Every structure is written in structure tokens, then in C-alpha cells.
């Protein structure tokens, strides 16, 4: 009888032992997988790509169906939208003339100043269209997958935009697909996503760093704005390109409020994101020119 | 119905919850309601099929979700889905669990799952929202969706998983 109870105790301890080992292994895996990884291992690549290959057959048709119902419901808004679009087109035609003139002049000035070829091409971003093929069901890890991968020249940390503005960063790159982390996951406590150095369209000398997202208000937090900075409410915030991660000139959002920051030395602005993070169907990956040359 | 059906159906559920279901969630609840249908299936496996089946389903599909949507870190869903489904099986396997009790267990399991995921992300400093906010913002509304789904599939799920456990002594119903 004593032997049986002893055996039982060993068995119990073994279970505890296994539990402990499992916990340690998982803690190690989580810690290891946390930071930036340029290359994933082949099991990850295989599983990720083959599952997403199946997912892509479902996401888009579902989107079309949902969009159909939405269209019927929003029929009334279309007239108003059409009116607005016409006005925008008129403005575009006017701006186009100015743009052509300025571009020509810019070219001439670059020639005159003997810009090197590399410098000239510095802002020639390529916008590569990508379809969203699946959305993560975890609200604290709200990644979505796009159908471009490392074989298409996509690298981690490339900016992802919609027609409205900046959506996120390419996070993990599989051979055929990649995951995108929305900018709502910006977090000053972790160094996983780099902060965005930003400026505003109205005042070129403005500068601030967007490094946090307030989920409770749905606003991005722009810190380290100098006290005498001309930034004010309703200004359009764009990337400044100074951090080296995000290219220059991507629209982020509009300034909601501006107030004195935590330490009283700098100001903090709350920025309403321009892009819609839900129900994405098509996004653009911004490929910087020099990165593209590296890819074969 | 047996093992042959469980894996393909759960896989289909996984595909659906990541592609079609997000389109069905109404606009204001986006980013708040998150479907965990595969996890509900794993809990049903724990309730009516056995702890090992639950562990395998939870582990495999948790791993799948972790890798496919690899964002912050790997292993959160693998660990939580596997562990909670196994625990359910360990405590309630072979017992006759009526419908309301099963729904209560699934609700509790989903709460533990979401709270556990929040805890892990918090420890690794991936999120810094206070727990009360996350609880009201996403965990509570998701709980309703999960319980509703569990109620909707109760009969087919029980039939599917109970048929699998042939060695179950109390199968004379």
C-alpha cells in the first residue's frame, strides 16, 4: 500500500514537473520571439504561408458581400459624396498645373546644385498595392496579413498606408505574405515599434514624436513638441522622415488638442488618425528607393 | 461523426473567424469583439471528448493562430488554449455536464483566456492599458459573442465530440 501511494506521489510530482518545464519553455519562446527578427524559420514560413493561402479565398468575397449591403444602405450619401469629389477634382486640376511648374523648377534646381543620383532618388517612393487577406482575432495583437512577402521585396518596418493615411508597419515577413502591425499598437514602453517623428503640413519647422496610442480616446499621442512650436489644432500631421523608419510626407492624422506635457518642458498633442483601421481591403506598402535596389 | 470530422471542421472555423466573421461584426464594435470560436471548440472537446483531445486541439490551433498572425510574440495562444482546454478536460471529463453548466464553463474559460493573454502581453510590456479598461472594452463584449456561439453550436458540438469518446461509460442516453 505504501509503495502504491509513493508511486502515486511520484506521478503527481511528475505532472507538476512537466507543467513547470512547459511554462519555462513557453516563457523562453515568448522572450525569444519578442523583438525584431529579419528572417523566420522554415516551419514558421511554411505554416504561415500555407494557412494564409487558404484564408485569402475567404476574406475578399466576404468583403464584397459586406460591401454590397453597405452600398445599398449608403445610396443616399452618394450624391453628396459625388458633389464633394467633383470639387476635389477641380481643385486637383488646379493644383496639377502648379505642381508641374514646381516639379520642373525643382528638377532644374537639383541639376544646378549638382545633386547626386542617389540624392535625387531619395524621395522616389514606390507605392506597391497589396490586398488584405486575413485579420487577427486577438484585440491586443490586431495584426492583419497582406499578400506581399519577402519574394516581392518587402522588408520589416516598411510603412503601410491607405488612401487616407498611415496605417501601420510591416512587422513579420513570410515568403509570400506578411503581417502588418497597425500604428494603434505604438507603445513608448516597448521598443518593438519605432516611434514616428512627425511634422505638420502647415508649418515645416514643427517637430514632434508620435510614440503612444491612447486606446481609451482613440488618439495618437505626439510628444516632445517644443514650447514655441507653431503647431496648433486641426493641423495635418505628416511623417517627417527624420527617424529613418517611416518615409517623408505620409499623412498620419489631424491635431485634436495640444497641452503641456508630463514634465512641463515640452508640449503634447493628441492626434486623430486619418486612416480607418477596420475593414481594410487594399493597402499600399511604401517601398523606399534604396531598399529596392538591394532586392534582386 | 468522429475524429475525421473534428479537425477539418475546426480548421474551417479558424479560417472563418479570421476572414468572414470580422466583416460581420458591426462597425462600432470593431477591435472590441473578437471571435474565439476555435477556443470554444477546444473547450467542447474538453467537456465531452476528453482532456487529451482538448489539449491537442487547443495546442495545434493556438500554434496556428500564433504563427499566422505573428505580431508581438509567439506562444501566447498555444499556451493558453492548450492549458485552459486541458484543465477543463481534467476537471470535467466524463462528468455529465448539462447545457447551462457547459455554457458557464465556456464563459469562464473565455474570460480566463482573454485575461491570461492580457496578462502575458502586460508582462512583456506589449500593452499598457489598465485591466479595467480592457475588461470593459474588449473582454466583456467578446464574452457575449463566445457564449452566443457556444449556445448556437451546443447540440452539434456535443454530438460530434461525445461520439468520439466511445469508451465513455455513461453513454446510454
Topology:
The complex is a heterodimer of chains A (296) and B (173).
Chain A: H1 2-34, H2 42-73, H3 75-112, H4 117-120, E1 126-135, E2 144-146, E3 159-161, E4 166-173, E5 178-182, E6 196-200, E7 208-214, E8 219-225, E9 236-239, E10 251-260, E11 267-273, E12 282-287, H5 289-294
Antiparallel strand pairs in A: 1-2, 1-12, 2-5, 3-4, 3-12, 4-5, 6-7, 6-9, 7-8, 8-11, 9-10, 10-11
Chain B: H1 3-19, H2 21-24, H3 37-48, H4 51-68, H5 76-92, H6 99-123, H7 131-152, H8 154-164
Order of helix and strand elements from N to C terminus of chain B: HHHHHHHH
Which regions of chain A are unreliable across 5 or more consecutive residues at pLDDT < 50?
none
Q: Report helical residue fraction of chain A.
A: 25-40%
Note the gap between the termini of chain A: 72 Å
Features:
A: 296 residues, alpha+beta, Thrombin, subunit H, 12 strands, 38% helix, B: 173 residues, mainly alpha, Arp2/3 complex 21 kDa subunit ARPC3, 8 helices
What does this structure look like?
In chain A, strand 1 and strand 2 form a beta hairpin. Chain A is built from 5 helices and 12 strands. The model of chain A has no long low-confidence stretch (mean pLDDT 85). Among the domains of chain A are: 129 residues, Beta Barrel (Thrombin, subunit H), CATH 2.40.10; 78 residues, Thrombin, subunit H (Beta Barrel), CATH 2.40.10. In chain A, the strands form 2 sheets. Chain A has a 6-stranded antiparallel β-barrel. Chain A has a 6-stranded antiparallel beta barrel with strand order 6-7-8-11-10-9. Chain B has a single domain, classed as Arp2/3 complex 21 kDa subunit ARPC3 (Orthogonal Bundle), CATH 1.10.1760. Chain B contains 8 helices and no strands. The longest helix of chain B is centred in the middle third of the chain and has 25 residues. The C terminus of chain B is likely disordered. At the A-B interface, helix 1, helix 2 and strand 1 of A face helix 1, helix 2, helix 4, helix 5 and helix 6 of B.
Amino acid at each position: 500500500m505504501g509503495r502504491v501511494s509513493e508511486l502515486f506521489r511520484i506521478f503527481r510530482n511528475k505532472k507538476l514537473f512537466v507543467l513547470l518545464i512547459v511554462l519555462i519553455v513557453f516563457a523562453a519562446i515568448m522572450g525569444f520571439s519578442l523583438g525584431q527578427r529579419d528572417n523566420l524559420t522554415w516551419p514558421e514560413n511554411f505554416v504561415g504561408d500555407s494557412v494564409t493561402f487558404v484564408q485569402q479565398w475567404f476574406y475578399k468575397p466576404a468583403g464584397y458581400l459586406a460591401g454590397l449591403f453597405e452600398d445599398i444602405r449608403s445610396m443616399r450619401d452618394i450624391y453628396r459624396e459625388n458633389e464633394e469629389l467633383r470639387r476635389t477634382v477641380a481643385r486637383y486640376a488646379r493644383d496639377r498645373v502648379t505642381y508641374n511648374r514646381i516639379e520642373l523648377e525643382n528638377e532644374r534646381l537639383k541639376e544646378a546644385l549638382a545633386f547626386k543620383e542617389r540624392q535625387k532618388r531619395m524621395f522616389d517612393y514606390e507605392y506597391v498595392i497589396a490586398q488584405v487577406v486575413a485579420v487577427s482575432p486577438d484585440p491586443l495583437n490586431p495584426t492583419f496579413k497582406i499578400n506581399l512577402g519577402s519574394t516581392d521585396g518587402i522588408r520589416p518596418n516598411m510603412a503601410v498606408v491607405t488612401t487616407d493615411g498611415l496605417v501601420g508597419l510591416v512587422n513579420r515577413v513570410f515568403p509570400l505574405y506578411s503581417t502588418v502591425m497597425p500604428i494603434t499598437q505604438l507603445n513608448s514602453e516597448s521598443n518593438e515599434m519605432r516611434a514616428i517623428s512627425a511634422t505638420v503640413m502647415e508649418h515645416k519647422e514643427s517637430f514632434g514624436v508620435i510614440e503612444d496610442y491612447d486606446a481609451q480616446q482613440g488618439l495618437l499621442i505626439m510628444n516632445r513638441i517644443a514650447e514655441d512650436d507653431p503647431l496648433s489644432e486641426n493641423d495635418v500631421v505628416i511623417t517627417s522622415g527624420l527617424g529613418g523608419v517611416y518615409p517623408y510626407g505620409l499623412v498620419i492624422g489631424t491635431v485634436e488638442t495640444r497641452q503641456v506635457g508630463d514634465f512641463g518642458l515640452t508640449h503634447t498633442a493628441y492626434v486623430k488618425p486619418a486612416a480607418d483601421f477596420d475593414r481594410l481591403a487594399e493597402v499600399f506598402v511604401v517601398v523606399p528607393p534604396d531598399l529596392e535596389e538591394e532586392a534582386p | 461523426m468522429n475524429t475525421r470530422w473534428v479537425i477539418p471542421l475546426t480548421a474551417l472555423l479558424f479560417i472563418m473567424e479570421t476572414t468572414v466573421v470580422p466583416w460581420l461584426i458591426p462597425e462600432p464594435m470593431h477591435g472590441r469583439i473578437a471571435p474565439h470560436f476555435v477556443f470554444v471548440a477546444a473547450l467542447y472537446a474538453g467537456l465531452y471528448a476528453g482532456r487529451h483531445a482538448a489539449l491537442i486541439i487547443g495546442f495545434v490551433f493556438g500554434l496556428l493562430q500564433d504563427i499566422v498572425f505573428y505580431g508581438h510574440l509567439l506562444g501566447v495562444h498555444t499556451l493558453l488554449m492548450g492549458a485552459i482546454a486541458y484543465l477543463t478536460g481534467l476537471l470535467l471529463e466524463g462528468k455529465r455536464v448539462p447545457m447551462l453548466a457547459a455554457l458557464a464553463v465556456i464563459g469562464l474559460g473565455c474570460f480566463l483566456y482573454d485575461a491570461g493573454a492580457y496578462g502575458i502581453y502586460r508582462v512583456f510590456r506589449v500593452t499598457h492599458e489598465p485591466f479595467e479598461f480592457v475588461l470593459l472594452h474588449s473582454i466583456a463584449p467578446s464574452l457575449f459573442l463566445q457564449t452566443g456561439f457556444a449556445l448556437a453550436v451546443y447540440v452539434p458540438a456535443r454530438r460530434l465530440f461525445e461520439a468520439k469518446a466511445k469508451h465513455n461509460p455513461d453513454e446510454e442516453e
